Amino acid sequence: TLLARHEYPTVIWGRNAEQVAAIDQRHENPRYLPGVPLTESLRATTDLAAAVASADLLLVVTPSHAFTETLHALAPHRRAHAGVAWATKGFEPGSGRFLHEVAEEILGPGVPLAVVTGPSFAKEVAQGLPTAVTVHSDDEQFAQTVANALHGPAFRAYTGNDMMGAELGGAMKNVLAVATGISDGMALGLNARAGLITRGLNEMLRLNVALGGRAETLMGLAGLGDLVLTCTGDLSRNRRLGLALGRGQSLGEAVAEIGQVVESVQTGDEVMRLGDRHGLELPISALVRAVLHEKITPREGLQRLLAREQKPEYPDGLFE
Ligand SMILES: NC(=O)C1=CN([C@@H]2O[C@H](COP(=O)(O)OP(=O)(O)OC[C@H]3O[C@@H](n4cnc5c(N)ncnc54)[C@H](OP(=O)(O)O)[C@@H]3O)[C@@H](O)[C@H]2O)C=CC1
Ligand SMILES: O=C(CO)COP(=O)(O)O
């Protein structure tokens, strides 16, 4: 709806005929964005081949568990010049690969790729409220093309060239949002929330540096920006999952009640796998995973965090 608002002829593909008809004809998405009017020029279809074959630019927004199959489905129909961007946040489930690695493998060399990420609740974007995101690509011109399409009177799109850092920030903030949600669900107070956000940012920065990424990406919209939004904004599904767990609900009950994708349930595993591979301790992320897998209760998680040894805030400099 943002692209259509910017007068780009835009077609959204979906697999559910009823939802597609509602978007195409009534300009609404009653299942996922009830009550938010969509741009009238936005077209919707269930015909993936036709939608892809007519596009100069592809923006994938399926959940991470559907990313690989969606790219396989669209690849044969992609026009030779059409670059592929995605707003999906997470890793490929199972392999733990970054999504740009998956895209490179499926689409082959030479296809322009870009990550769109940042603090952007879909509902607020659709309502036309001011939002800022960042578009990262190895191909500077493609980053600019995607940013130009998204950028408009109420939407700022910055550019960068650190795809891995941008993807790591978008994935990790979902796990850390569960931690602050749990803390708030247990009514542990505002100090606890700020402490978790800051030490969570530290986990993001250390993992990114271990992977060879650049700290500045995580200090920007892709990291800090999205971390603050998701840890504090009740529109976040990941935060709401934490709130429910902190109040004593089970994982199954909470996920069913939210009724939308909650990326952290899968991403917690992949983050810990990356941390283990690089010999990093990520205490908040580790406890979130343990609570999500119902191996420990939120109260046990809290006790373990508070019982950790006292130490310098930055033992080996800022980013050892
Ligand atoms: N919502 C937000 O504010 C933001 C979300 N994101 C990221 O975007 C991604 C999608 O999130 P979001 O749209 O909010 O999730 P939702 O749960 O709201 O919607 C998921 C959508 O993806 C579709 N879908 C699920 N599986 C498949 C599949 N195998 N093939 C085709 N379509 C599929 C669903 O269709 P169906 O109804 O048929 O199941 C539905 O339309 C996530 O990675 C999220 O982290 C990024 C920034 C902001
Ligand atoms: O990524 C998002 C906002 O930038 C949406 O967060 P949730 O998936 O937690 O709702």
TrEMBL record:
Q: In which pathway does it act?
A: Membrane lipid metabolism; glycerophospholipid metabolism
Q: Which residues form a coiled coil?
A: none
Q: Which residues bind sn-glycerol 3-phosphate?
A: K89, G118, S120, K173, D226, S236, R237, N238
Q: Which residues bind NAD(+)?
A: A122, R237
**By its UniProt entry, which InterPro entries does this protein fall under?**
6-PGluconate_DH-like_C_sf, 6PGD_dom2, G3P_DH_NAD-dep, G3P_DH_NAD-dep_C, G3P_DH_NAD-dep_N, NAD(P)-bd_dom_sf
* Top EC group: oxidoreductase
Q: Which GO terms describe its cellular component?
A: cytosol
Q: Which reaction does it catalyse?
A: sn-glycerol 3-phosphate + NAD(+) = dihydroxyacetone phosphate + NADH + H(+); sn-glycerol 3-phosphate + NADP(+) = dihydroxyacetone phosphate + NADPH + H(+)
Binding-site list for substrate: K89, R237, N238
Q: Taking every annotated instance into account, which residue ranges of this chain make up the domain Glycerol-3-phosphate dehydrogenase NAD-dependent N-terminal? A: 1-143
Summarize where NADPH binds, as residue positions: R15, Y32, K89, A122, R237, V261, E263
Location of the protein in the cell: Cytoplasm
What molecular function terms (GO) are annotated for this protein?
glycerol-3-phosphate dehydrogenase (NAD+) activity; glycerol-3-phosphate dehydrogenase (NADP+) activity; NAD binding
Q: Carries keyword Transferase? A: no
List the catalytic residues.
K173
Q: Which GO terms describe its biological process?
A: carbohydrate metabolic process; glycerol-3-phosphate biosynthetic process; glycerol-3-phosphate catabolic process; glycerophospholipid biosynthetic process
Report keywords, A-Z.
Cytoplasm, Lipid biosynthesis, Lipid metabolism, NAD, NADP, Nucleotide-binding, Oxidoreductase, Phospholipid biosynthesis, Phospholipid metabolism, Signal
Q: What family is this?
A: Belongs to the NAD-dependent glycerol-3-phosphate dehydrogenase family.
Question: In its UniProt entry, what is this protein called?
Answer: Glycerol-3-phosphate dehydrogenase [NAD(P)+]
Species for this entry: Arenimonas oryziterrae DSM 21050 = YC6267
Q: What is the lineage of its organism?
A: Bacteria, Pseudomonadati, Pseudomonadota, Gammaproteobacteria, Lysobacterales
